[in-house]
């Protein structure tokens, strides 16, 4: 064990200039904005949420670091907006790790990057086997980060000093990491690919699931086999959502999904029956029992019965294709295997080369006629970036026109 520890890279336990105080006053925010405006080059950005503890996905801590500006920790809770920081940064490039996770909560605070470098996405494009921040920093910079509080309740106040140290380390080396990844991508001829991917992340806003349909994301919903029970689940979900938002706690802390599904399955008619359903136990469940019972009864009496399966326009799971659409199954399997080989040649992860959802849609519902031009156009329409179209269109076209027989799959 001691020999193994001797060969480990050095452990970075806190930022070079120490852990700064948390900014939580207008005067402090103005001081931070002035410092950031006086800095130069890109800015490292990160945000901490309280997923699983609080309602929604808002940021409870924002971390920034820029050359000549220092490292800053901002508590967003006392402020309506962080627009002063947005103005201070101007057109500076933002560096984030897994940017799609943090950009929405930063946007809620009035912060939007004008240019972006995503170190996690860059690591995927560079073909690194592990793309978590700690793994990429260790691989490229030869340093280990002290990482342990990623699942913490960041809404807690005051934030413990060791949590702040963890948060500060998330941005401490991002500027150096960006430089290292940028050089690697340039050597591999992937700089333009990365630029296209970063811009897509910066500008793309995934279509939000309409609130009226979000209840269908409930884990275990497939256990309910009748529209009436689905209606009960829908009303239970809405009741839980309202209470969670009111109390500002994560819906799963009000009641787990399994409890909602069990109640919709059993359709209890009285409070004692409800409290006998798995998941409905303890004082909180007893106190809110009338709320849940009203929801079950509303579902039972509803005239607006949902369909068993929501129509999304997306193809069914490929595991069902072999019987339902054998030709689509052959096309999909052929294209997928060839794209995996292409990804290996290019040293990128296959899901980066072409998103699985795009491939499934194209194989299930190909363009007519099938040729290189129509396939390339279909890929672009489904959201593939130009570099992805260039690297995959011919492979997919051949797979659609001449898929391997079932015996070879």
Task: Describe the secondary-structure layout.
Elements: H1 2-6, E1 11-12, E2 22-23, H2 26-38, E3 40-49, E4 59-67, E5 70-74, H3 83-89, E6 93-96, H4 99-107, E7 115-118, H5 119-125, H6 133-141, E8 144-145, H7 161-172, H8 174-187, H9 191-203, H10 227-247, H11 251-254, H12 257-266, H13 271-275, H14 282-287, H15 289-301, H16 321-324, H17 326-346, H18 350-353, H19 356-364, H20 372-381, H21 386-401
Parallel strand pairs: 1-8, 2-5, 3-6, 6-7
Antiparallel strand pairs: 3-4, 4-5
Describe the overall structure.
- This protein is of the alpha/beta class and 409 residues long.
- Helices cover 52% and strands 9% of the residues.
- The chain is built from 21 helices and 8 strands.
- The strands form 2 sheets. A 6-stranded mixed sheet has the order 2-5-4-3-6-7, with helices on both faces. A two-stranded parallel ribbon has the order 1-8.
- Helix 6 crosses helix 8, helix 17 packs antiparallel against helix 19 (356-364) and helix 20 crosses helix 21 (386-401).
- The radius of gyration is 25 Å and the shape is flat.
């Amino acid at each position: 064990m001691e020999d193994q520890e001797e060969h480990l890279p050095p452990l970075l336990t806190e930022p070079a200039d120490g852990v700064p105080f948390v900014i939580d006053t207008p005067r402090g925010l103005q001081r931070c904005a002035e410092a950031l405006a006086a800095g130069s080059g890109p800015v490292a950005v990160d945000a901490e949420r309280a997923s699983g503890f609080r309602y929604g996905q808002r940021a409870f801590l924002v971390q920034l670091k820029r050359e000549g500006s220092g490292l800053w920790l901002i508590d967003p809770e006392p402020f309506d907006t962080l627009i002063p920081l947005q103005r201070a940064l101007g057109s500076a490039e933002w560096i984030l790790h897994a940017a799609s996770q943090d950009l929405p909560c930063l946007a809620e605070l009035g912060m939007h990057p004008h240019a972006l470098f995503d170190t996690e996405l860059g690591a995927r494009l560079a073909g690194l086997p592990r793309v978590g921040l700690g793994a990429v920093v260790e691989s490229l910079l030869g340093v280990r980060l002290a990482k342990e509080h990623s699942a913490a309740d960041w809404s807690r106040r005051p934030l413990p000093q060791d949590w702040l140290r963890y948060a500060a380390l998330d941005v401490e080396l991002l500027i150096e990491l960006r430089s290292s990844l940028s050089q690697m991508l340039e050597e591999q001829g992937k700089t333009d690919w990365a630029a296209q991917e970063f811009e897509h992340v910066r500008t793309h806003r995934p279509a939000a699931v309409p609130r009226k349909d979000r209840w269908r994301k409930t884990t275990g919903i497939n256990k309910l086999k009748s529209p009436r029970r689905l209606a009960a689940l829908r009303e239970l979900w809405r009741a839980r959502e309202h209470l969670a938002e009111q109390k500002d706690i994560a819906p799963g802390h009000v009641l787990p999904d399994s409890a909602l599904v069990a109640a919709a399955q059993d359709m209890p008619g009285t409070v004692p029956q409800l409290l006998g359903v798995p998941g409905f136990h303890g004082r909180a469940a007893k106190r809110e029992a009338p709320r849940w019972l009203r929801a079950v009864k509303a579902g039972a009496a509803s005239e607006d019965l949902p369909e068993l399966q929501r129509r999304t326009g997306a193809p069914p799971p490929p595991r069902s294709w072999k019987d339902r659409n054998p030709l689509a199954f052959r096309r999909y399997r052929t294209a997928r295997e060839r794209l995996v080989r292409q990804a290996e040649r290019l040293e990128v992860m296959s899901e980066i080369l072409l998103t699985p959802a795009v491939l499934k849609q194209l194989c299930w519902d190909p363009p007519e006629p099938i040729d290189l031009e129509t396939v390339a156009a279909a890929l672009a329409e489904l959201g593939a970036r130009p570099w992805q179209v260039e690297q995959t269109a011919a492979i997919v076209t051949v797979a659609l026109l001449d898929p391997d027989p079932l015996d070879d799959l």
